[in-house]
Amino acid sequence: MQRLLDRLYNAMRQTLLRFLLLALLTIAISTGGLYAWLRTSLPDTSGEIVMSGITAPITISRTLHGAPTIDASTQEDAHFALGFVHAQDRLWQMEGMRRFALGELTEVIGAETLQTDIAQRRIGFGRLATAQYESLDRKTRSALILYADGVNAYLKSRDGSFPMEFSLLGFEPEPWLPEHGLLWGRLMAYQLSARWRDDLAREALIDSVGMDKVRELWPSLKLGEQAAFKDTPLPPRQFEPPLGASNAWAIVASRSNTGGALLAGDPHLGLTIPGTWYLARMRFGDQVIEGATAPGVPFVIIGRNANVAWSFTSNEADLQDVVRVANADITSNDPEDIRVKGGNIHSIRIFYSGDAPVIAGGMLDQSGDDGLALMSTTLKTQDKTPAAFYGLNEAQNLSDAIRALDDFQSPLMNVIVADTSGRVARTHAGDIPLRKGIHGRLPMTASDLRWEQVRASSVYPPEIDPVSGAVANANEQTPEMILSEAELSGDWASRARADRLDALLSAQQKFDLDAMAEIQHDVIDVTGEIWKSVIGEAVGDGLVPHAQILMQRWDGTTQRDAPQPLIYASWLSEMNRVMFYDEMDDRFFGMKLPGPRHLLELLRAESPWCDDAKTPDVETCKDLPKRTFDIAVNKLSLVYGDNPSDWRWSSAHEAFFANALLGRLPTVGDFFNRYIQTDGGDRTLNRGASRSGAGVNGLFPHVHGAGFRALHDMAGAPSRYMVAPGQSGNPMSSHYDDLMELWRDGHTITFDDVTLSTMVLLPIK
Q1: Does residue 2 surpass a pLDDT of 60?
Q2: 375 contacts: CB under 8 Å, gap ≥ 6
């Protein structure tokens, strides 16, 4: 994604200059004229509109913070209206997602995005979506059709300019097609399963430092003596390295103060503006469905209906394998044309080995070398996952929800469910590769590839109403997977969040939504105790002993007004730098390196990683913690002064909501991004995660966390939500960022909040 942003930046420079000149001219002609013109891109949310495609009047009322409630006569009209409101508030986000998935950015941006488009065409998200659409059941296709009709109805009914991204790039959106509603799911499944780069990087690392040292980093991977691919070219990175994390848990009715089951969920993804999620409620007949929707998709992804609530966490499974294939086993489709802005056409050929796309080498670069094909459960045409969401939206009880998830295929997820009878469940949803004789942690030859794709539900039974009265997951390896013969991963998330969640759920017998909210916003890092086990007592006066004394008093709380989280994060960053980056180059950026607990194991084992390969001396693990602590503290002093008591986590830790396009503009880009100081860290339930390699110049930008939170009481109380940073993707809207501070401070909103506006869609008589 960063490469894409850089290309967008370069491509936009000349466009921006033209835009600024136009703006200056406009302002010169009429003061406030530009502002007034940009305001016309805001949708009308009041009044009446007559349109075709609906059977009866639809009322769309919006709360103070822009969350719509759609009141329709039928489910079909509700799907139509959801497409309409998504287009009203997130049109550019939908357009950008569509073009990125289809490999059509170059048509509107220029040659700067050509390599991105080529990579997307090779994977074939557009081809997959088209084939998938034809294979879906009638009800699911109907929902996609009606949603597309709603999007297109907005395009026809709008009066004014399109959002400013369209003006900057000089084009208007094309009609939305039903199959476009499948692209978001395809991208998300691929992103949450993108482990194939790690396979190639591990091969390269084995070649660089040897098998023994690599085994120390990934002891659970069971790495064999496979021959490494030499100098394997890495295709362009399409996504940032995943920082997999989410929390979800549910409490049975007998442990609830209200007499109803309780469920909490907060999926963690990269922080952007606009955010991934859009809060909406649909009511039709006696049905109500509400929660997190994804612009471009006609279903509630995470939420509830009148009877059932559900939330997801990523399973962190390895669902992809890189396979070396001979050119003789590679076939090609007909050429595809990529339109380049300005009128040129760039033709490419798409290569396959069986049904696996070739992503590097071979005929792609005419090198004569073997090609690299990508096997993945997320790249199958026969994928019924949209039907699973349809079933979840309609589920009447816990059993219905679990049955609906039998259709869920990609990616592999943990699902937490609760219903109005007081029952709760944790189950697995998605397809898994059952590997035979291989582990899948390194690239392999075609002759080694032996795996079949099966549904998780056939391997891992659901956990329903356990004796503890609670089900939970924070991306950790689940007990049934520990005992399973299926090797799904060696890269599950650290148990730090899971251990903290288990402790909090065991600390009291009864809960209500307030108690559940406190858990969601907990900022204790349970790995903080590790520091005390490897750093001795403070000796003498001065900067470093002062910092040691502060750390000895620390209980792991990562509040933004405290110095200790900054010191701890800086020390860990320095440890990683000294231990690993001396032997790693850019090929390994973004790889999952050992967390605090694993680091402690390496220190106690006197790992050879403790030696600094860039010095003639042989450094040991014994003095490494103290030595790196001294370095970290002295580096911090250069940035924040000589009094550690005055240091603040907030000085280095800000949530960064990046606007993928407008935020990259020179001079004015930051006007479209948003920043806010936050609590939390990489391993807290209220997650404030930074990218790998953070700590440069003493900064740990918060780029990954809970952009959506939900709290449900199945006894009937209004569900509580938060979506960050706001409902609108239009910088001219008050809802662009009006929820950011409320999100940071732990507040929630409901659909019963004050109504700000009401619109009625009327059918043509």
Answers
A1: no
A2: 320, 321, 322, 323, 356, 433, 449, 451
CA distance 462 to 424: 10
* Average predicted confidence (pLDDT) for the chain: 89
CA 241 centroid distance within chain: 10
Q: Given a cut of 50, is residue 28 above it in pLDDT?
A: no
Looking at per-residue pLDDT, the higher value among 220 and 293 belongs to: 293
C-alpha angle 132-83-98 in degrees, rounded to nearest 5: 50
The three-point CA angle 188-98-656 to 5° equals: 60
Considering its fold, how many domains does the chain have in total? 1
Query: Helix 75-102 crosses helix 138-157 at what angle (to 10 degrees)?
Result: 80
Task: Extract the tokens encoding 605.
Answer: 């084992």
Could you give the CA distance from residue 77 to residue 149 in angstroms, rounded to a whole number? 10
pLDDT digits (tens, 9 = 90+) for 284-313: 999 999 999 999 999 999 999 999 999 999
Q: What is the DSSP letter of 743?
A: H
Question: Is the distance from CB of 300 to CB of 554 less than 8 angstroms?
Answer: no
CATH number at residue 609: 1.10.1400
- The answer as to whether 216 is a domain residue is no
User: Could you count the other beta carbons within 10 Å of the beta carbon of residue 85?
Assistant: 28
Task: List C-alpha distances in Å: 16 to 8, 13, 109, 169.
Answer: 11, 5, 12, 9
Distance CA 452, CA 431 (A): 10
* Radius of gyration of the chain measured on its C-alpha atoms: 26
Residue 399: the pLDDT is 97
Say if 744 falls within a structural domain: no
Strand 68-72 to 278-284 pairing:
parallel
Cross-sheet strand order for the sheet of 356-361: 331-332, 351-353, 356-361, 371-376, 320-325, 444-445
Please give the residue range of the domain that contains residue 626.
Answer: 526-557+563-647
Give CA 32 to chain center in angstroms. Answer: 39
Percentages (nearest 5) of helix, strand, coil residues in the chain = 40, 20, 40
Alpha-carbon distance of 737 to 474, in angstroms, equals: 28
DSSP track, 548-599: HHHHHT--SB--TT-SHHHHHHHHHHHHHIIIIITS--GGGTT-----HHHH
Question: Measured at the alpha carbon of residue 505, what is the angle toward residues 520 and 654, in degrees to the nearest 5?
Answer: 20
Q: Is the pTM of this model over 0.85?
A: yes
Other beta carbons within 10 angstroms of residue 666's beta carbon come to 11
Between CA 482 and CA 305 the distance in angstroms is 33
Domain annotation covers residue 112: no
Mean pLDDT along residues 709-733: 97
**Which pLDDT value is given to residue 29?**
43
DSSP-derived secondary structure for 121-182:
HHHTHHHHHHHHHHHS-HHHHHHHHHHHHHHHHHHHH--SPPPHHHHHHT--PPPPPGGGGG
- Domain assignment present for residue 156? The answer is no
The rounded distance, in Å, linking the Cα atoms of 285 and 542 is 71
